[in-house]
Amino acid sequence: MFIRDVRFIIISSLVILGMNTMALQADPVWEKINQPIGSYSFMDIAFSPHDPNSMLVCGPFGIYSTEDDGESWTFLPLTSEPQASRNVTSIAISPENPDIILAGLTTNSESTLRRSSDGGQTWTEISAFQGVNYAQDILFCDNGNAWVAANFGLMHSSDQGLNWQRIEQTELVSFQRIIQLDSAGDSLVAVSLVASFSDLDLVIFSSDGGTTWQERITGLPYPLNATDITVSRADPAFWYMSATGFFPENPEETGIFKTTDYGQNWVRCDNGLSQPAFSRAILASPLDPDHVLLSSIDYEHGLFETTDGGESWQPRQTLPGMTYPTVMAYAPDSPHTIWIGNKAYTLYRTTDSGQTWNSRCQGIVGGYFYNIGGNSSHLYAGPMPSHSTDNGNTWQISNAFDPWMFQTVSLVNPLNSGTVYQGGYTWFFDEIMPQPELFVTYDSGQNWISRSAGIEPNYAPRLFCISPADTGRVYLYAVDETTRRDGKLYMYDAENEAWEELSIPTNYFKYLTVHPTDPDILLATGYEGGLLYYSDNGGNSWHMSDGVSVGERGWFVTIDPSDGNTFYAMGDAGLYRSQDQGVSWQQTGEGLPIALCYNITINPLQPNQMFASIKNFGVYWSYDYGDTWQPLHEGLGTWMILTLFIEQDSNTLFAGTYYDGIYRLDMNTLGVENDPQITFLPALQPN
Q1: b/e for 115-152, b at 16 or more Cβ within 10 A?
Q2: Which helix (H) or strand (E) holds 543?
Q3: Considering Cα of 415, then 409, then 382, then 325, what sign does the dihedral take?
Q4: Bridge partner residues of 415 (DSSP)
Q5: Does the predicted TM-score (pTM) go above 0.90?
Q6: CA 80, CA 62: separation in Å to the nearest integer?
């Protein structure tokens, strides 16, 4: 408390001395900090056909290339537009010309295929894929033909990907994978992602270069969803497929399946797997058709293997912990070298068939972060909980409590950075519904305590807020993971160590916040209609705040930390301000783009200084209580900023992005007009 008061006295003294004019000390430039443990999945790996040390990896973070076998990586931008999505789902290199690359890209609302003829330096969008053709897998055959497994059928090119045609037999089927079985490219197998009950579905085979196709489904349960398929290079008659059913309670529709006669007959081969329904990638050895690797969500293991053709499976103990591989590949020049892309940021390589593994992701950055909090000594970023003790210079993972929890939200106590909440859910094969998970640490992650009691099954934590005036008052909003729409509001009951359900005025909250000095006052925005809801009794009852609608989709609401009467709300209809606790509203925000708002952050020591992150427009800032705004983009690699956080000790602004990591900015370089009327609410004592 004393330190906070001293800081305010110093600021006030500077104002009295006349430092209330712009005094720009240096150009404000964002700095990209060392990569925390991100939350993204590697989606595909492509090897150069002429250089064994050259390869590409891709995912929601974009495309990275290496020419030194993964010692270092270089980012290959698909576009110069900072507001564009980087989500690359698939990638392939031409065996005839390694400078020709095809990449499947999903943007905010569309999907496309892009082609490069100069090794990824420049890209051209392929018109045949604009809009709806989601490129889930790309295959370059040795004969120069190219194939794409898309969500509306198979696409074929005979000129290195310049021109494309859809295979009529496969229209309206969403395909997941396509594989070449022979060097000539005559034999092909394709697997659909979702059974569609069409005339040609699930697993199809061609022996004439893709001119005609036949189903190969005898012995397979129906319906089921294929997650991956692999073909043994040692014997291409051996295929293995991992699949899930439509309903977790029907295990007969899920599992691992095998054929030894080019798909003519299939048999189940998942003995020894406790969670076959949650398998992801599958990979057959190039030396032995009975040796297969499988990634799977399991309480203790993420990678399994069989050496007897699936008669039995054992966990691969040598792989580093907390691993859920999303993509696996053998190096084409070495049958003992395997690459594995992990769901939790890491890319691993082994050169001895899996006896030892090494991380090979130095230089690959791009996790997404929508939670940042704490202070310079204990800074946290999530949803994959990362912890820094040096203001973001280095990071460590901090979710040893449950490596298989899907992270959805985190919260740091504003008055005690050692107290951190982490929320999410698990969903395993033997559970019909996802199970909510919530943990808290009171010692900066050394020990975690479960706090899930009272949260209804199927509901995953999505929004957290904690009262600065009473840090024992914690509110939680959870969403039905099966519908992703219906929600429930809870308050933590410390006496009973359980969550107590409260009333909710709409079925879906987009944002929730609590008053800085009154823990009973809550503000929330609904997802549809842009309505603002207000509660003055701790969420027991609600009413709509008249006079404001922030657009068709409400987005963000916040309260001035130095003036509890001043509210701000912003959506795709603009920025609104109320100075009487929501009784009346006025539109403001000159210079601020009218678009969806991810975050508004107010400097608690200089509340005339505000920052906003706007979808596809980046960061804007104001020094006059939000009346006028200007861009603050210099140094940002993306304009998709999900969260903003002010670390007061170092006067640093942090920005968490959508798959471009975390940036920070020295706020001393801004040159802010200080307001001589600034007041600060009394310092609050932690509980």
Answers
A1: bbbebbeebeebebbeeebbbbbbbbbeebbbbbbbbe
A2: strand 543-544
A3: positive
A4: none
A5: no
A6: 12
Q: 618: which residues sit within 8 A by CB, 6+ positions away? A: 82, 83, 631, 632, 633, 636, 638, 639, 641
Amino acid at 73: W
The mean pLDDT value for 558-587 works out to 90
Select from 121, 116, 122 the least CA-distant residue to 138. Answer: 116
Query: Which of 7, 5, 14, 4 shows the shortest CA–CA distance to 671?
Result: 14
542-555 residue pLDDT tens: 988 776 766 666 57
**Which stretch of 302-311, 346-355, 421-430, 604-613 has the lowest confidence by average pLDDT?**
421-430
Phi-psi region of 671 (alpha: psi -120 to 50; beta: other; left: phi over 0): left
Which tens digits make up the pLDDT trace of 659-687? 888 999 999 998 755 544 444 333 333 33
Please state the separation of Cα 158 from the chain's center in Å: 35
Residues 535, 526: contact at Cβ < 8 Å?
Answer: no
What is the per-residue pLDDT for 127? 81
Residue 10: pLDDT over 70: no
Whether the per-residue pLDDT at 248 is higher than 70: the answer is no
Q: Which residue has the tokens 């790996």?
A: 45
* d(C-alpha 198, C-alpha 170), whole Å: 9
Give the whole-angstrom CA distance, residue 254 versus residue 269: 11
Pair 503, 541: CB distance under 8 Å? yes
Full 3-state SS string of 423-449? EEEECCCCCCCCEEEEEEECCCCCCCE
Nearest alpha-carbon partner for 588 in 567, 617, 613, 562: 567
The per-residue pLDDT for 320 is 63
Query: What's the pLDDT tens digit per position in 12-71?
Result: 333 333 333 344 445 789 998 877 665 567 889 999 988 989 999 998 888 999 999 999
What contacts 484, CB < 8 A, 6 or more positions away? none
- How does DSSP assign 444-499, residue by residue? TTSS-EE--TTSPTTEEEEEEEE-SS-TT-EEEEEEETTTSS-EEEEEEETTTTEE
Contact call for residues 134 and 89 (beta carbons, < 8 A): yes
Helices then strands, counting H and E runs in the chain, come out as 1, 56
